Amino acid sequence: MEILSRINGPEDVKKLNQEERTALAVDIRAAVLNKVSKNGGHVGPNLGTVELTIAFHYVFDSPTDKIVWDVSHQSYPHKILTGRKSAFLEEDTFSTVSGYTSQDESQHDFFKIGHTSTSISLAVGLAKGRDLKQEKGNVAALIGDGSLSGGLAFEALNNAAELGSNLIVIVNDNEMSIDENFGGLYRTLAELRETQGQSENNLFKSLGLDYRYIEEGNDVESMIAAFEAVKDIDHPIVLHVHTEKGHGYDHAVADKGLYHWRPPFDLESGEGLNSSNQQSYSGVVVEHLMAEIAAGNTKLAAINAAIPGMFDLPQLKEKHPAHYFDVGIAEAHSVSFAAGLAKNGIRPVLFHSSYFLPRAYDQLSHDLAVNQLPAVIIVGNGHVNESDITHQGIFDIPMINSIPNIKYLAPTNKEELLAMVKWALVQTEGPVAIRLPAGEVISKDTAFLDYSQARYDIQKAGEKVAILALGSYLSLGKEVYQRLTDQLDISPTLINPLFITDLDKNCLEGLKQEHSLVITLEDGSLTGGFGETIAAFYGDSAMKVLNFGATKEFTDNVPMEELAERYRLTPEAIVAEVKKHI
Amino acid sequence: MEILSRINGPEDVKKLNQEERTALAVDIRAAVLNKVSKNGGHVGPNLGTVELTIAFHYVFDSPTDKIVWDVSHQSYPHKILTGRKSAFLEEDTFSTVSGYTSQDESQHDFFKIGHTSTSISLAVGLAKGRDLKQEKGNVAALIGDGSLSGGLAFEALNNAAELGSNLIVIVNDNEMSIDENFGGLYRTLAELRETQGQSENNLFKSLGLDYRYIEEGNDVESMIAAFEAVKDIDHPIVLHVHTEKGHGYDHAVADKGLYHWRPPFDLESGEGLNSSNQQSYSGVVVEHLMAEIAAGNTKLAAINAAIPGMFDLPQLKEKHPAHYFDVGIAEAHSVSFAAGLAKNGIRPVLFHSSYFLPRAYDQLSHDLAVNQLPAVIIVGNGHVNESDITHQGIFDIPMINSIPNIKYLAPTNKEELLAMVKWALVQTEGPVAIRLPAGEVISKDTAFLDYSQARYDIQKAGEKVAILALGSYLSLGKEVYQRLTDQLDISPTLINPLFITDLDKNCLEGLKQEHSLVITLEDGSLTGGFGETIAAFYGDSAMKVLNFGATKEFTDNVPMEELAERYRLTPEAIVAEVKKHI
């Protein structure tokens, strides 16, 4: 770390000679690996961009010259060079920087970014802003080949071609998305690599953009030459840079998928430190689909957008490849594609994450819901979390709740999940979304078989207070039930609603007789969610309603304990509120 | 109409000889013009596709062979040939078919479609469904050059290239979007037209797709030859077809923008029949922006996605072209581009329609809201309407309401709108959306100047009943107020909330003292909207709350009177409900 110890900002990079720049790459790689091996994080993406990041800060003058990192999961070397190296070297300061760029951390970052394919649009905006203000400076976007399949990147390239001023789009081509790339584009990108950029089929030129190919993306001097050649260029240009994902760490090169993002691992052996073989709720769904296909149901399609590992899909991919579809990073297409399949007699099962599903909002509405097509949408990661601001799992409920014709279900255990999936695979009313419960897989004996009409599961029939505890928060509801019973000597009603979007009006009406207070618990953002609809239902009655869930806000790496306290999502806090109202 | 009189389905098209096919084109064109001139509708798009539609049904066997029409605003000739000609010929049956494809109307339509850029994804789904079922048949998508700029079309082309079986993508290149095209793609499409498809820069080939160019897209025999050459092809192919928007009707050819969609007009002279020079609310905003720019504020950018005419933007485009941005059909890019501008010191003002804004949901959240960037979003067409199912204006409130950090304002007249725009242009907290009122422009004397803190406008301070009448429904609220005063002899409180997303908690708390009932009126879908949040606010109190607005449902060309009755949105119905609860 001798060289890195001298680097406190981009200006220090400019002082290095060639030998020192080479040594700096070694130090940065070691710093990245130090943190991700102990803390978990994006491994391969950051190892692949070490050299081009050094070259960028050697050639350009940040922040006058600006770079926008797509997803920004490959920005660790940039962070290390821009005053944040201690967060990679010293374990007790790991948490002082996030896993993505943040303007709160550094003047060298311009946006909080965590979703793909936005960088070129943002850079075109920065560049046009520069032009309108008649200022100078370079604007660059760095985007991975995997992110290029997202339609927004295409919209932005098409617009970038009309900019008429400086813009440098660095396509970081490491031949990988999170998993393998998918799409015709990747055949022609390979042709470009094989021909050193000379192949006729060139996406960028076909959009009217200037283009250059750089083969040695993991060589600092090559990248310096490439950047110097385009610095202060007077029009948009695409630099197609060939890099290696995981470069310089053999384990990461050998298994690029595993090392895209990895929990803590042993640096020497590459063994995971917290390995777990527990079954997951997505695994429950995937195993059922595999059993269906194996039993002869050939009219099934399992679809995801570049994150098969998040949903235990690799096993299905391997055993039933004809029924497996990774559309690449193209959430919008995944949903419209599913609409086409459903219209032609295939039952699509989409796997999406709560925080990426919004990328297909209009397709959920316009293609699936308007047309009442019976697709199944498995929603993962839908819960209050302590993750990054761009990866909050609380907005799926209000989002889906706002769209007609989609039924959104909230199982609380393995059997309910399976029963809902089985029903969703045969019903013909329209799209059905199912929210995977958070936490470990739990079992119970029975589940309703039919979800065509809303029917809440009344687990304890009581009086005075009714607890509607949705999805994973059923366990919280049970704790509240127990405390009310023990402490207040009342026998409340405990309900597992099962249905997020559909009201069991019979049940809700019935509660009016023996209850004066309904409390709702949901593992999501309250505004526009489940509880508010319940409150509105009781608006014209004497029933009081208290909604518990997350405040409508973006949180950024806030510990769960703090969130639970902030949102009054502890049994103590809930019981204290109940006491005020009975 | 001699030939058309013999055509009752695609099978009849196949019986025609060349001369008759030529005559059929004349008849179809006359039928289209008959309806759109009397009824309003898409003119140019349908006149341009007459010949290729005849050729399609001559060569292919619908519905075994399937065609998906992008946006489907060019599907009138297809409707005329598939059993629905009377709805174009006879005025009393005009309303029996919608302006878009509909599987409810015909087995030759597969989806309800009204948004752009979805057709290729849907067709890939249909094709893959065919393959999984081991069936035969051709699947085609027809997409205009304008719609190609939408990212979803790119995602779909990229996926289509990997299909490995029959798919025919017809690119209907009429050199126009709704307005002029924008983007580098359109330069290279022009090169392809000029070189009869031989130019090196070819988007489709750059995605690994087979490609053919057909110059004479308005010649039936050329199109028959082109379709016969690809019928039953064993892999995906793009047919790049050059057509003329408005072909065969001189007025429409001469002004392609005006005739994209036109209200009723005189067929002979081309004069509009219901021309109006009334000021619109979007005009109020645009005129203010023009005045700002003229006064030296060069840090403004007015942005829209291919629908400048809907927002009175052509005047700004003409006078201040440096501050005008039509990004093409690329709603997602428009928002991320605005985020980049805002970050670099420019104040972007986005103009979007309630029903297209969902196409940028994740960009609103991830790029603008997470980063708290002070963009201004003007939302048009946000109201209950009697339009098509894909053009409902009621979901913008729940959608924006679900996203943190966006302030959504609801002016009720010109002065409030202007005051909000002026404030939004200088505030620095984050994105501000403003919902244009429905109906004619009305004026009042004053408006609040500052919208940083939620403050409701209490127009009448009374007791017992408080009416919170949002946006355009303030007039409905006034009627309810008057009836309650006259009929029930009570003095209710009448409030213009102004803020959709932010609660004026002081005001709401204060109402508890003298009121027992709050009624909310909103011109949008209730679920997840303004009223439900108010109901939740009062959930723990004795206040009763009644929400009036649209039911969460898709409606399709339902008359306003029927909707008003269905949703109890008449003064009579509201007062009747109030009577039950006081």
Short descriptors:
homodimer, 582 residues, alpha/beta, Rossmann fold, 3 domains, 23 helices, globular
Number of strand segments of chain A:
18
**What is the strand arrangement across the widest sheet of chain A?**
9-8-10-11-13-12
Amount of helix of chain A: 25-40%
Question: What is the total domain count of chain A?
Answer: 3
Mean pLDDT of chain A: 96
Largest sheet of chain A: 6 strands, parallel
| Global geometry of chain A | globular
**Number of helical elements of chain A:** 23
Say what oligomer this is: homodimer
| CATH homology group of the largest domain in chain A | Thiamin diphosphate (ThDP)-binding fold, Pyr/PP domains
- What's the CATH topology name of the largest domain in chain A? Rossmann fold
Architecture per CATH nomenclature, i.e. the level-2 architecture of the largest domain in chain A: 3-Layer(aba) Sandwich
- Pair of chains with the largest interface and how many residues each contributes: A-B, 118 and 119 residues
Structural class of the secondary structure composition of chain A? alpha/beta
Fraction in beta strands of chain A:
15-25%
Low-confidence stretches of chain A: none
Would you state the CATH class of the largest domain in chain A? Alpha Beta
